[in-house]
């Protein structure tokens, strides 16, 4: 059985706490490894080593740092299959989906290869008599990334690429459920030329997280996970004087207008709702058709598509649509929410509760479920299910559908399917959600834009990746300078008026 420690000063090291967590195979329910859980002392030691290593890395010019990113990107491509297999083995997602996990992280690395341009400051010549002003972006120092189980490659890459390209050192604390991919990425980054200690991977649980939040050397914390934990981390980090960007849960809606292509809308809903077993913060979990005829037509299209979904282990290669959920507890919670929907009066059109896969009876597989006539007061609507469950909430009008989305406490992503450009433009402008798709179900922006939710889906004023990453991971220093043309006697005791 594999024993996974930490990645400190350029090499894998064993944990010293004596505490471990099981790393499960979600498809079989078997323990496939043990991961060390760091103590506060281990975290603080890793931070101290990172702080020392950051001094030279921060002084390295941006072009040389970008070359490390270039090599790192090439190594990710070379090791794509191995990384995807590690993602699939510990998370359970299919191999094509796991490759997509790695690919979307790689795209952020590619964007960060442009760090020399992105780190340029501003300059004003002759802002006053003989006075010039310029600004510079400087690294924060040591920062922390705390990442979730559902994207073992993508989100660690989102965090580390910008932080390192800006000249910081990073302590990465991946989910203890999926530690292997982060360790592999750290080794590839080291092979790409990153100096020892600039990227440390510390595995752990709440003790490690709290140690990062309380360590005075850590200047910023970037997190993705559930909303309650995002709020906790944001509150504790900012109370300790740190920058923080913390992204939480979601309840993403797709509005389907009467003029939409129903086949395209149904295909989009099935992929966005059930892909990765629904364990995506950008999954569409609520369909909102406008008008009875639209709702009836949509449910008629959805039922055969949902019933035809294939569920199985990642080893089935391309023959399955999605795999197991992450833990037995997650499976139990999802099934409990489906039961609550039935008990509260929603119509369970496709029932996945009794799904069982021969030969994998101990795995955490959940069959696909589809509800109709869900109402906003029901628990299955209020809660983020994070599983293969799609709910249809009927709306009588466009304004009612829009208001439903705007009244929801979450604001991560949303989509609208329509052939009417005026309606689409109005929806995009008015809806209070951070990412909007028009005839596009999962509107995750490309790497040169930026990712972030509103309302209870995000805490902090800067988003992930894109230009915002370079703002978040640097601080701006502005210099006002004047060079005298001759000798000037005496001092000045008041601000000089600008001409």
Q: How would you portray this structure in words?
A:
The chain has 499 residues and is α/β, with parallel strands linked by helices. It folds into two domains: 2-248 and 457-479, Aldehyde Dehydrogenase, Chain A, domain 1 (3-Layer(aba) Sandwich); 252-438, Aldehyde Dehydrogenase, Chain A, domain 2, CATH 3.40.309.10. The chain is built from 16 helices and 23 strands. It has a seven-stranded mixed sheet with strand order 15-16-17-14-13-19-20, with helices on both faces. Helix 2 (62-78) runs antiparallel to helix 4 (95-112), helix 2 (62-78) crosses helix 7 (180-191) and helix 3 packs antiparallel against helix 7 (180-191). The longest helix has 20 residues, at 40-59. The N and C termini lie far apart (74 Å).
């Amino acid at each position: 059985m594999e024993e996974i420690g930490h990645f400190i000063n350029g090499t894998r090291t064993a944990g010293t706490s004596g505490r471990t967590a099981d790393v499960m195979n979600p498809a079989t329910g078997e323990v496939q490894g043990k991961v060390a859980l760091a103590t506060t002392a281990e975290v603080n030691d890793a931070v101290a080593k990172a702080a020392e290593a950051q001094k030279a890395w921060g002084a390295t010019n941006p072009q040389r740092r970008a070359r490390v990113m270039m090599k790192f990107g090439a190594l990710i491509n070379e090791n794509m299959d191995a990384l995807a297999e590690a993602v699939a083995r510990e998370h359970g997602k299919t191999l094509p989906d796991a490759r997509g996990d790695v690919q979307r992280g790689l795209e952020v690395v590619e964007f960060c290869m442009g760090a020399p341009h992105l780190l340029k400051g501003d300059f004003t010549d002759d802002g006053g008599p003989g006075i010039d002003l310029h600004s510079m972006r400087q690294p924060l120092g040591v920062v922390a990334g705390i990442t979730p189980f559902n994207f073992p490659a993508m989100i660690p890459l989102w965090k580390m690429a910008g932080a390192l390209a800006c000249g910081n050192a990073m302590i990465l604390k991946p989910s203890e459920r999926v530690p292997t991919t982060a360790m592999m990425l750290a080794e590839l980054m080291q092979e790409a030329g990153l100096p020892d200690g600039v990227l440390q991977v510390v595995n752990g649980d709440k003790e490690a997280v709290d140690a990062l939040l309380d360590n005075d050397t850590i200047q910023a914390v970037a997190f993705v996970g559930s909303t309650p934990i995002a709020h906790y981390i944001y509150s504790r980090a900012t109370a300790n004087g740190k920058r923080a960007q913390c992204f939480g849960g979601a309840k993403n809606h797709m509005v389907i207008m009467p003029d939409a292509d129903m086949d395209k809308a149904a295909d989009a809903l099935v992929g966005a709702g059930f892909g990765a077993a629904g364990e995506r913060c950008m999954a569409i979990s609520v369909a909102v058709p406008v008008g009875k005829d639209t709702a009836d037509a949509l449910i008629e299209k959805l039922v055969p598509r949902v019933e035809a979904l294939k569920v199985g282990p990642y080893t089935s290669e391309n023959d399955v649509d999605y795999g197991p959920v992450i833990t037995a507890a997650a499976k139990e919670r999802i099934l409990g929410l489906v039961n609550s929907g039935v008990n509260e009066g929603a119509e369970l059109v496709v029932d996945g509760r009794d799904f069982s896969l021969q030969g994998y009876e101990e795995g955490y597989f959940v069959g696909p479920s589809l509800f109709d006539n869900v109402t906003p007061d029901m628990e299955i609507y209020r809660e983020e299910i994070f599983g293969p469950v799609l709910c249809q909430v009927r709306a009588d009008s466009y304004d009612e559908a829009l208001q439903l989305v705007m009244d929801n406490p979450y604001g991560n992503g949303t989509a609208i399917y329509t052939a009417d450009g005026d309606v689409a433009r109005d929806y995009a402008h008015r809806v209070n959600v951070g990412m909007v798709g028009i005839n596009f179900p999962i509107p995750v922006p490309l790497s040169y834009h930026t990712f972030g939710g509103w309302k209870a889906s995000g805490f902090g004023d800067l988003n992930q990746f894109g230009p915002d990453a370079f703002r978040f991971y640097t601080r701006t220093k502005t210099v006002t300078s004047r060079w005298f043309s001759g000798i000037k006697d005496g001092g000045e005791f008041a601000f000089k008026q600008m001409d």
